[in-house]
């Protein structure tokens, strides 16, 4: 995967470096000039910080992006990697306060063709008598699904309405911001609640997600929907205010199973939460 560093400088390029780049660019063939121009345009699209272009420099691996770099790396591959999102980006700056306090990674938008494909599957599902037939149909990589913050991950907003149609069974949901996200009817398997961002799944829904063997503890589950999950929940350390629970949940208190949760003041939802599986 191509590593790209976007560096924000406190001052523009040195005049001597500018002159060298002018000479190097002039010495390129017309094809190489087009490659350089296309690559520079593609790199600039990765920048989300509102600063003048003159303050931005790029590094491809450990090599500074310039016209002379055309001779030492494959620009067609660089362009293809950017197009296919096969890149790892990092933004740095010498200017205090230029970056968001909680973010160092550049936000790469969702692939347009991927979103269109999911929208098409979603439309077919809505027209079908068995929409669940279309669940888990589209594979997606972690690199495509997530925005990576400084110390946690978020799902790209473009994918949030379509999560049940994605095959999430191989995606690692660790160090995640789970709050207020609807994961219901997804096929998540690799999930680590102990690393949840801000120790919270508040406002989220995991309805009908099979989480047998998973346990919630030391976490805020306020207003979450956990029906049909078969989770084990440590009620002593989990905030369950306005949380939706049902008979699939195993509630613990002081390491003992709560035999009759409703007698302890818990309200269990009485509804059929299962979905039809397809093969």
* Unreliable parts: 101-106
**Portion in strands:** 15-25%
Annotation, overall tally of beta strands: 16
Structure classification: alpha/beta
Shape: elongated
Mean pLDDT: 87
Head-to-tail CA distance between termini: 34 Å
Encode the helix/strand succession as letters: EHHEEHEHEHEEEEEEEEEEE
Please state the CA-atom Rg, rounded to the nearest Å. 24 Å
What kind of sheet is the major sheet? 4 strands, mixed
Strand order of the largest sheet: 3-2-1-4
Number of helical stretches of at least 4 residues: 5
Q: Helicity range of the residues? A: 10-25%
Describe this structure in words.
By secondary structure, this protein is α/β, with parallel strands linked by helices. Helices cover 20% and strands 18% of the residues. It has 5 helices and 16 strands. The chain has helices spanning 15-26, 30-44, 75-83, 112-127, 142-145, and strands at residues 2-8, 56-60, 63-64, 87-93, 138-139, 146-148, 153-155, 166-167, 172-173, 190-191, 215-216, 219-220, 232-234, 238-239, 250-253, 256-257. The strands form 6 sheets. A 4-stranded mixed beta sheet has the order 3-2-1-4. Strand 15 (250-253) and strand 16 form a beta hairpin. Helix 2 (30-44) runs parallel beside helix 3. 23% of the residues are buried. The model is unreliable at 101-106 (pLDDT under 50).
Which features would summarize this protein structure in a list?
four-stranded mixed β-sheet; alpha/beta; 279 residues; elongated
């Amino acid at each position: 995967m191509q590593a790209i560093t976007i560096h924000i400088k406190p001052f523009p390029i040195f005049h001597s470096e500018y002159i060298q780049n002018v000479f190097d660019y002039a010495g390129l063939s017309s094809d190489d000039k087009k490659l350089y121009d296309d690559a520079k345009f593609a790199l600039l699209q990765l920048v989300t910080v509102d600063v003048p272009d003159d303050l931005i420099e790029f590094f491809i691996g450990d090599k500074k992006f310039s016209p002379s770099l055309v001779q030492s790396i494959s620009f067609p591959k660089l362009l293809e990697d950017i197009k296919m999102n096969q890149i790892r980006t990092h933004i740095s700056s010498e200017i205090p306060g230029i970056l968001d306090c909680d973010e160092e990674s550049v936000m790469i938008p969702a692939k347009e063709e991927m979103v269109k494909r999911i929208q098409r599957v979603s439309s077919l599902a809505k027209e079908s008598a068995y929409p669940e037939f279309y669940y888990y149909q589209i594979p997606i990589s972690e690199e495509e699904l997530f925005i990576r913050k400084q110390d946690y991950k978020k799902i790209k907003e473009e994918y949030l309405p379509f999560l049940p149609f994605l095959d999430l069974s191989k995606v690692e949901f660790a160090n995640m911001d789970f709050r207020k996200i609807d994961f219901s009817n997804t096929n998540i398997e690799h999930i680590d609640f102990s690393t949840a961002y801000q120790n919270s799944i508040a406002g989220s829904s995991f309805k009908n997600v099979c989480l047998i063997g998973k346990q919630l503890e030391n976490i805020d589950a306020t207003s979450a929907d956990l029906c049909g999950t078969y989770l084990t929940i440590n009620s002593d350390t989990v905030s369950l205010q306005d949380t939706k629970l049902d008979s699939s949940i195993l509630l613990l208190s002081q390491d003992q199973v709560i035999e009759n949760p409703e007698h302890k003041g818990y309200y269990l939802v009485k509804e059929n939460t299962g979905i039809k599986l397809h093969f």
